[in-house]
Amino acid sequence: MSNIKSVAVLGSGTMGAGIAALAADRDCKVLLLDIDKDTVEKGKMKIVNEKKPMLSKPSNIENIATGTFEKDFHKISDYDWICEAVVEKIEIKRKIFNEIENYMNKSSLVSSNTSGIPLKDITKGMHEDFLKSVCITHFFNPVKIMKLCELIPGEKTSKEVIQKLSIFLKDTLEKGVVYGKDTVNFIGNRIGCFFMFKGLHEGKNARKNNISIEKMDALLSKPIGLPPTGLYGLIDLIGLDVMYSVGKNLEFNLPKNDLGRDFVSLPDEELNLYNKGQLGRKTGGGFYRINRTIEDQKLKEVYDLEDNIWKPALRENFNVSYDVMLKDTIEGQFVWNVMGASLLYAADLIPEIADDIVNIDNAMKWGFAWEKGPFEILDILVPEKVVEKCKNLRVKVPKMLEILSNSKNKFFYKEKNEFLNIHGEYQKI
Ligand SMILES: NC(=O)c1ccc[n+]([C@@H]2O[C@H](COP(=O)([O-])OP(=O)(O)OC[C@H]3O[C@@H](n4cnc5c(N)ncnc54)[C@H](O)[C@@H]3O)[C@@H](O)[C@H]2O)c1
C-alpha cells in the first residue's frame, strides 16, 4: 500500500480538476489551488457537474478544500504529494515550482503534469535537494477515463520517490504506469504527435490521389486498431491551436536528427484554418462539423481543404486489416506512409524515450487507445516483411528492427509474457 494519503493540486483547469477529483474519489485529502477564488470554484464545480460528474459519490467533494496561490500556498506543507497542473508555459511553471520549494514539507513528493516540457527545463537552477523529490506525472485527458500515467524521473529524482508514486498511481488511482525519460513529449505524445503531424502532411498527397478526409479516417481507425476518430477527427478533438503550440515545442526541443523534425509545422491548408480560428470541436468545427438541416436534422459535414467549402461527409468503410500497409495500393501506401512511418519512428526511439518496447506499447494503448502497441503491430505484420519493405524503399531500418534482425529471434514478443530487450534477448515482462 502507498503511504500517500493527501494531495495538493496546483491549477484547477481540465487536468487539475481531473486529478483532484480522482484523488478525492479514492479518499485522499485534497487541496486545490488556483489564481483566484472564482477560478478555483469554477474548477470545483466542473468536478460535480451533473452532466459529467467526475466523482463516483457526490459526497466525495467534501475531501476537496480550495484556495488561492496568493493566500493558501503555505498549506501545501500538509500534503504528501504536490501535483502542479498549471497552464503549459515554462515561465509560469518555474514560478510555481519556486513557490513549491519555499513551502513544501521536505518529505513530500512533487510532480509536474506537463504534456511535453522537459523537467530539466522547468527545474533548471533549482536546489539539488529539492530535485530529489521532483518528477513528472503525465496524466491523459480525461483523467477519470484514460488509463495512462507516464512517470518520468529527472536526473536527480530519488528511486524512492518514483517507487512511492508508482505504487500510489497503480494501487490507489488505478492507473497504468509507464516509465519514460525526460525527453520532449515523453512517450505517448512523442509518437502520437509524429503520427498526427505526419498524417496531416501525407494527407495533402493523399487528397491529390482522391483519398478524401473521410476515407483517410476510415483507413486510420478500425482496420488498424485505432479509435474511430481516425486522424482528422482526433485533431478536431485536440484543436489546431494545441497542435500549433505542440509543434513549436517539438521544433525547439526535438533532437537535431529526429525524423519528426520535418513535420513539426502545420501544412498550409491547416495553417489557414488555424489562422481563421477554425480550430476543431471547441470552435464548432475544424475538419468536420455537425450542421442542422432546414428540417432540423443533424448533418455531419467535412471541410474541403482545397475548395474551402463545407460538404456533406460521406460514410466510408474499408474491409482491410493491418497488412493493408504492406500492400501496393494507393490506400496501402497512404497507411504505410502514416502508420507504417509511426511504427518505424517508435522502433528507433529505444533507449532514447523508454528502456523497452513494453513501456512504448502500453503508452500507446493506454494513452491513445490503440488496440495494439507499435511493436505488437510490427509482430502482426511480421518484422522480416517490414525490414524487407524498408530495404526496398531504401528507408533506414530502425534500431529495434535491426536488433531483432541481428538476433536469432523473429518477433518482438514471445508467448504472452516475454519481450525482446535492447540486447536482442527475450526478457520476462
Ligand atoms: N488538456 C489536456 O489534454 C492535457 C493532457 C495532459 C497534460 N496536460 C497538461 O496539464 C497542464 C494543465 O493543462 P489543462 O489542460 O488543465 O489547462 P487549463 O487551461 O484547463 O488549466 C490551466 C490552469 O492554469 C491556471 N493558470 C493560468 N495562468 C496562470 C498563472 N499565471 N499562474 C498560475 N496558474 C495559472 C489556470 O487558472 C488554469 O486553472 C498543462 O501543463 C498541460 O500541458 C493537458
Cα radius of gyration in angstroms: 23 Å
Identify the strand order in the major beta sheet: 3-2-1-4-5-6-7-8
Biggest sheet: strands, sense, closure? 8 strands, mixed
Count of the separate structural domains: 3
Assign an overall shape.
globular
Q: What brief labels describe this structure?
A:
binds nicotinamide-adenine-dinucleotide; 3 domains; single chain; eight-stranded mixed beta sheet; alpha/beta; N-(1-d-carboxylethyl)-l-norvaline Dehydrogenase, domain 2; 429 residues; 17 helices; globular; 41% helix; three-stranded antiparallel beta sheet; Rossmann fold
Q: Overview of this structure, please?
A:
This protein is an alpha/beta fold and 429 residues long. It folds into three domains: 6-179, NAD(P)-binding Rossmann-like Domain (Rossmann fold); 188-287, N-(1-d-carboxylethyl)-l-norvaline Dehydrogenase, domain 2, CATH 1.10.1040; 323-428, N-(1-d-carboxylethyl)-l-norvaline Dehydrogenase, domain 2 (Orthogonal Bundle), CATH 1.10.1040. The protein contains 17 helices and 14 strands. The protein has helices at residues 14-25, 37-48, 69-72, 90-103, 119-122, 128-131, 159-172, 188-208, 213-219, 232-238, 240-253, 268-275, 330-347, 357-368, 374-381, 383-392, 399-406; strands at residues 6-10, 29-34, 64-68, 81-84, 109-112, 134-139, 148-153, 176-179, 288-292, 298-304, 309-312, 413-414, 418-420, 426-428. The strands form three sheets. The chain has an eight-stranded mixed sheet with strand order 3-2-1-4-5-6-7-8, with helices on both faces. A three-stranded antiparallel sheet has the order 9-10-11. Strands 12-13-14 form a three-stranded antiparallel sheet. Helix 1 links the parallel strand 1 and strand 2 (29-34). Helix 13 (330-347) crosses helix 15 (374-381). The model has no long low-confidence stretch (mean pLDDT 96). It binds nicotinamide-adenine-dinucleotide. Residues 11-16, 34-35, 39, 85-88, 92, 113-115, 139-141 line the site of nicotinamide-adenine-dinucleotide.
